[in-house]
Design goal:
The chain is of the alpha/beta class. It is built from 13 helices and 14 strands. A hairpin with a 4-residue loop joins β11 and β12. Its cofactor is pyridoxal 5'-phosphate.
Length: about 425
């Protein structure tokens, strides 16, 4: 007999959730605690007990404008009155065309061709397929592996898992069934020994089975929130050019201003660029893969003659319309000023923690603030401590960090820093 549906009280809803719903990286038989959210507005979440807390995570880095944004709400309603979805096979529509037009315009000039995927992980899967098909199209079918760096994270599907850190990452248990990619050392932090690191990269790149290189540029996300030296990107570009490899930048976390640049790819241009998360301002799932003309021609020259991918919700009109409204909002507001202001607030607010007991490092980049501990975080205790300060944080591994919406004001940024300090005390 099926379980009874949950009744309406918060306790009843949470009880059903605990018995029947999986959450990211949690056990079904011994689930971690969750909080009921009943609403979101501005930069605040309303919890089931009626309390409001500042969202220090931008809903996993995607809600860069905050919540209940009038311009995005209006785009959602307007598009829904025309069509919410239509298949992209054999059909097209204005929101997808306009979005592709905008993405080509705001990304570096060589990136001219757009594949609209339905999530960040899928965009990385598509990028990997593009790399392999391109190599087949240019007459190098023996090239089937990718070079990447340790400490990386690119998603949870199988192709993505194969290019995540194989030892310290979240997918080590699948090592035996994943494609064995080629890993080099994690890139050094700014000011580190880039030349020494580059020697290892150049040695690894002589592997004749390599088809491409994939990295998160400048900031590694879920693999450890590691900031590295920009010179490493130039090394990867040079190595890719020297060996005929396709260079892929996964900017799902870093894109749309998070690091202080609209895209890190403005500094060093890849052959393939993956975008997601903040693309729709956190409203709907959507991702994009942009390629150069050379990559597109190589794919078309492969034996299939076409790119072998086509998800059901590819180019979803609702998501595309909201993405366009989000890009409009970015252009209208001083997002660079917001990110600089948040960086100053996070830097000054978190720097005093550097000398606290148990702290390995404090680092900031754009609208990102990270405190690294010398031990794994007690996530329930750290979460509770942050909530006592009126802030929602989601620590992981040895990190307590924040990536707040750009709309976060100075007082709320200071509150986030106090919440991180409280979390550090108990973690």
């Amino acid at each position: 007999m099926s379980a009874a549906p949950p009744a309406g009280t918060a306790d009843e809803l949470l009880a059903f959730d605990r018995e029947h719903l999986w959450h990211p990286y949690t056990s079904m038989t011994d689930p971690a605690p969750v909080r009921l959210v009943t609403g979101a507005d501005g930069v605040r979440l309303t919890l089931g007990d009626g309390s409001q807390v500042v969202d220090g995570m931008s809903s996993w880095w995607s809600a860069i404008h905050g919540y209940r944004v009038p311009e995005l709400d209006a785009a959602l309603v307007e598009q829904s009155q025309q069509m919410s979805h239509v298949m992209f096979g054999g059909l097209t529509h204005e929101p997808a065309i306009r979005l592709a037009e905008r993405l080509v315009a705001i990304t570096p000039e060589p990136l001219q061709h757009v594949f609209l995927a339905d999530s960040g992980s899928v965009s990385v899967e598509v990028a990997i397929k593009m790399v392999l098909q391109h190599q087949r199209g240019v007459g190098r079918p023996e090239r089937t592996r990718l070079l990447t760096v340790r400490g990386g994270y690119h998603g949870d599907t199988f192709g993505c898992m194969s290019v995540c850190d194989p030892v310290g990452g979240m997918h080590a248990m699948f090592t035996g069934v994943l494609t064995q990619q080629v890993f080099v050392d994690r890139p050094p932090a700014p000011g580190g020994d880039v030349d020494g690191w580059a020697e290892g990269v150049r040695r690894a790149a002589t592997d004749p089975s390599l088809a491409g290189i994939i990295v998160e540029p400048l900031l590694q996300g879920a693999g450890g929130m590691h900031v590295y030296d920009e010179r490493c990107l130039r090394v990867l570009r040079e190595v890719a050019d020297e060996h005929g490899l396709v260079l892929v930048f996964d900017e799902i976390a870093t894109g749309f201003g998070r690091t202080g640049d609209l895209f890190v790819s403005e500094r060093v241009v890849p052959d393939i660029l993956c975008l997601g998360k903040a693309l729709t301002g956190g409203y709907l799932t959507l991702a994009a893969v942009l390629t150069t003309g050379a990559v597109a021609r190589g794919i078309s020259a492969s034996e299939s003659g076409v790119l072998m991918h086509g998800p059901t919700f590819m180019g979803n009109p609702l998501a595309c319309a909201i993405a366009l409204a989000s890009l409009d909002l970015l252009e209208k507001r001083d997002w660079q000023g917001d990110v600089r202001r948040l960086n100053a607030a996070l830097t000054s607010g978190l720097e005093p923690l550097r000398t606290a007991a148990g702290i390995v490092d404090v680092r900031t980049l754009g609208a990102v603030g990270v405190v690294q501990l010398d031990h794994p975080v007690d996530v329930p205790k750290a979460t509770d401590a942050a909530l006592e300060e009126g802030v929602w944080l989601r620590p992981f591994r040895d990190l307590i960090y924040t990536m707040p919406p750009y709309a976060t004001g100075d007082a709320d940024a200071a509150r986030i820093c106090r919440a991180i300090a409280r979390a550090v005390e108990v973690a």
